[in-house]
Amino acid sequence: MVAYRQPNLRQRTYRRDLAQPDAVPALLLSPLFSASRDPLLLIDARQIIRALNPAASALLGFRAEKVRGRVWRRVFQLERELAQGWRRNPIVQCLHSRRNQTLAKDTVLVCEERRIPLTGQVLNVSAGQKDMVLLYLNVSVESAETHSVSRRNEHEMLLQHMSRLNTVSELATGIAHEINQPLAAIMSFNQAALRLLAEEEPDVDRVAEALAEAVSQTQRAAGILERLRSFVSRHELHFMPVAINQVVINALTLLSSKLTETSVRVNLRTEPCPPVHADALQLEQVMVNLVRNAIEAMQTTPDDMRRLQIATCSLAGQVHIEVTDSGPGLSASASRQLFTRFFTTKADGMGLGLSISRTILEAAGGELSASNSPAGGACFRITLPISSTEEVLSGKHTV
Ligand code: ADP
Q1: Using H for helix, E for strand and C for coil, what is the string for 121-143?
Q2: Whose CA is nearest to atom 20 of ligand 1?
Q3: Cα gap 248→15, rounded to integer Å
Q4: Cα-Cα-Cα-Cα dihedral of 15, 19, 20, 24, to 10°?
Q5: Which of 53, 133, 137, 153 is the S-S candidate for 120 at Cβ 3.0 to 4.6 Å?
């Protein structure tokens, strides 16, 4: 698993509220609450942790008094591994709807540098006028890990499939050119046959020769089409609200072993962003392309200097993502041709990754640009318009 460096957390406490007599329902402070082996946290409507049992404090690695009175997001995050699409945070959802929520199977609790797969529930335990939720967590490492591995394999296959499809669509232009050649040949052999037949005493053998050539060219064209058909199966794009921070996490999860093998340190600076309207898998492919390119660019960078920084934020109706590496940066000729199909400086490169990425982003109304960072490495910038559903416009949803 990648060691993500989380952004500095502002430490805000609300200890004053704890002095209020009805702040915590008495039942939850009973011996049962403390004795439970499962981690339990009581969170109020302002998302402040009111109480936690010893199992929760052991899970988070903090003493209870360090955590009590702080906004839960500043202590830990609940992330989804390889999730697609937009889903409201279950704690927020429970507070909002007053309905119990079950944590999705791929939930990961992120606390400092640790990522702990777990299951659990968010229970509505509102006391009187006070809205409260009880976060009940269940850390069954073995089953969570097994789930996580099979989910990752499944997801990798999906992504590989998507990548093949994108490659094909990019290659389609080239293939159209290839098909044009046999078509032109068929046309001229047939015209020749017609001309021969129009002669007073047609030479049947030559006519047959011309037609045989036309048949073989037809077979050639059919062969090209058949190869293409077996390579592509039907795929429809699924445009939906997508959480961009989740896309980043998915890409890093998929490339985690490559990042570890190549000693690349990841510095993740994500800010809560509203969803964008796009095909989640396609965006993931863009992120995978950019991260993979960054890893490859840093091959010649000394091990201890290999840094990949990914930053996200939302500004002026757009979500921005920056992927910056500490490699040699873009040469002048690469800068000019980066997005040109088939431009590559790699021995085994296809030169399609960036042009595919740009096509994907443009289809979602976004942009991809690149420049060198002041520190010297390459910096790729993505902008995508924020999804314009009503919920999002009301500013309620950010992850
Ligand atoms: P490929 O990876 O197959 O070469 P791409 O379209 O992804 O195809 O990239 C095209 C070229 O852009 C690469 O061969 C490389 O020269 C340059 N490039 C891409 N990313 C970076 C980067 N992070 N740093 C320096 N050069 C890069």
Answers
A1: EEEECCECCECEEEEEEECCHHH
A2: 293
A3: 35
A4: 80
A5: 137
